Amino acid sequence: MSESSNKGVSRFSMEIAIALLTGAFGVAVCFGSREAGMGWTEMGPDAGYFPFYIGLLIILGSLANLVSAFVKHRGSGAIFVETERFKAVLTFFLPLLAFAAVSTFLGLYIGTAFYIAGAMTLQGKYKWWIGLPSGIAVSALFFVIFEIGFKVPLLKGPVEAWFGIY
Predict the structure, then answer these.
(1) Domain DUF1468: where (predicted)?
(2) Which residues, including other chains, have CB under 8 Å from residue 27's CB and lie 6 or more apart?
């Protein structure tokens, strides 16, 4: 079976996506550096001077990868990842992305409880009455370890205000 007869994400599209993603990162670095000041003063460079030029290098590298993708892989039909394997990766990546989003707004402890409960229930096929208490227990254990044991405050979101934790 030839490589081009498989269905999946093409290498060309993946090369383009990664080049655009790293290019966007370079633009963000340059933009942030401009806000920090990228000039040269009598005391030396401003805080954003070196990051700005690093951002430019990232953009140039991304453009080189973009051109390389068009030259080497356009129309080649090479497959980066097959559809079934890509679905398997997404079953773990999408919940992790949801964990990051929930943790940003509600805090790491609530995000952890939801993630563990969801992973156990949806992916591990456990009953909800096993997954939910397990998620809460893991989150409580993390609280005891980090907040009380190591005295390292983690992002708590609105939970901090609800329980008066400061």
Answers:
(1) 18-154
(2) 55, 59
| CA angle (92 as vertex; 76, 119 as ends), nearest 5 | 165
The torsion region of residue 164 among left (phi > 0), alpha (psi -120 to 50) and beta comes to left
86-115 burial code (b ≥16 CB/10 A, e <16) = eeeeeeeeebeeebeebbeebbbbbbbbbb
pLDDT tens string 135-164? 999 999 999 999 899 999 888 888 777 777
Give the domain ranges of the chain: 3-77, 83-163
pTM: 0.61
pLDDT for 6: 60
Other beta carbons less than 10 A from residue 128's beta carbon: 12
Mind listing the pLDDT tens digit for each residue in 43-57? 888 888 999 999 999
Looking at beta carbons, which pairs linking 25-29 to residues 24 or more positions away fall under 8 Å? 25/58, 26/55, 26/56, 26/57, 26/58, 26/59, 26/61, 26/62, 27/55, 27/59, 28/55, 29/54, 29/55, 29/58
